[in-house]
Amino acid sequence: MVTSYARIETPVAPTTAAHVAPPETSRVPPSRWRRHRWTVIRVLSPIALLVLWQIGSALRIIPERILPAPSLIADAGAELVRNGELADALVVSGTRVVEGLVLGGLIGVALGALVGLSRVAEATVDPPLQMLRALPHLGLIPLFIIWFGIGETPKILLVALGVAFPLYLNTSSAIRQIDRRHLETATVLGFSWRQRFSRVILPSIAPQLLVGFRQSLAIAWLTLIVAEQVNSDAGLGFIINQARDFLRIDTIIFGLVVYALLGIITDGIVRILEARALRYQGDR
């Protein structure tokens, strides 16, 4: 007797991409540490450097006559704050920077606009300005003293000279890079010169102009550090000169730290203004 087994096949529905469910993947949100780790490291790195500096000074690895401990520098700064010398110096130095920025800024932007808008000015004004720009403006201190004396004038003019060239270069370059089609469209629409300047030229040059302003701020504080060393009777430079005469290295370093902080703070203010002024460009 032969037994036969029939093979029964169950029909299988065709498999398509629509019937295949994608594998479920659980997305784990990044931890707070992973999101902010670089910010934390940027904050902790200078703190770690100060701690190592303090430890090195306590162990006398770093001689006090060369580099005092951070605690001694902080004490020197606290002394200047208590007796009011720092506040008075900040007012004097800040006034010099503001006056130099205004004077140099007006000159630099005006010359940059003139050269950027006029072929004749580009051919006649730009060459001597480029020659003057090649000169180290801090090397002109002896001439400025002879010409203008040792009062406030040479200090303000030195700051103005250092400020003018970054704004001049950025303004003239930005104007040359304006899309000519925008200007032609404004002319066809019957815009007046004032309307063309406010609605076409100024928005187009604003990003590069603000970059030049940030560069000018850094140069302004750098110039002031040197200018205030020349027979100053007030300001941060005067405090540093007095500390040099009395061999107060802690006060000298504190004064330099204040200069650096002023530069960082003013640059941050310009960055905030830049972000607000250029919101129309979207996220960069």
From TrEMBL:
Give the matching CDD domains: TM_PBP2 (cd06261)
> Which processes are annotated in GO (biological process)?
alkanesulfonate transmembrane transport
The residues that cross the membrane are 40-62, 100-120, 132-150, 156-175, 246-270
The alphabetized UniProt keywords are:
Cell membrane, Membrane, Transmembrane, Transmembrane helix, Transport
Query: A Gene Ontology CC term for this entry?
Result: plasma membrane
Domain ABC transmembrane type-1, chain residue ranges per copy: 86-270
- Pfam families per the UniProt record, alphabetical: BPD_transp_1 (PF00528)
List, alphabetically, the Gene3D superfamilies matched. MetI-like
Homology family = Belongs to the binding-protein-dependent transport system permease family.
User: What name does UniProt use for this protein?
Assistant: ABC transporter permease
Instruction: Provide the species name.
Output: Williamsia herbipolensis
